[in-house]
Specification:
By secondary structure, the protein is mainly α. It has five helices and four strands, in the order E-E-H-H-E-E-H-H-H. The relative contact order is 0.07.
Length: 130
């Protein structure tokens, strides 16, 4: 099987890398981390996407300091940050949804929760509501 060289191959495409670190960097391509949300262009590295956002779209990209995902607007970054605050984590099975709305769908479909139970587990914050 091996030819004596340590090659790390990507499960998603044919590319092989000589180190795990380079493979890991490359795999962000497949997880959408290097895809521009505005024009769909896929860069080969996260740092290239940041440059692309800056020069092509004149944006100062907002990067999540926890996982490195880049968002084109501050509001989508703030939306995403809920993932790390545990707001999208299912308290029944531990699944982490990417959005609060996704968690609600999960609770309804997988755990068959009623509307009341959902409100208890995923309370809606009523902002600016008096
Ligand atoms: Zn690949
Ligand atoms: Zn773009
Ligand atoms: Zn993040
Ligand atoms: Zn669950």
């Amino acid at each position: 099987m091996t030819n004596g060289r340590a090659l790390f191959s990507c499960d998603n495409c044919e590319k092989t890398y000589s180190s795990y670190v380079s493979l890991h960097m490359h795999q962000k391509v497949h997880t959408g981390l290097t895809t521009c949300a505005l024009c769909g262009k896929t860069s080969s590295r996260v740092s290239d996407l940041r440059r692309h956002l800056h020069y092509v779209h004149r944006l100062e990209p907002c990067t999540c300091s926890i996982c490195g995902r880049t968002y084109s607007s501050r509001s989508s970054l703030l939306h995403h940050r809920k993932v790390h605050q545990g707001a999208t984590r299912c308290s029944l099975c531990g699944l982490v949804a990417s959005k609060v709305a996704g968690l609600r769908t999960h609770l309804r479909r997988i755990h068959n929760l009623s509307a009341e139970e959902m409100m208890r587990l995923v309370p809606t914050r009523r902002r600016y509501h008096y």
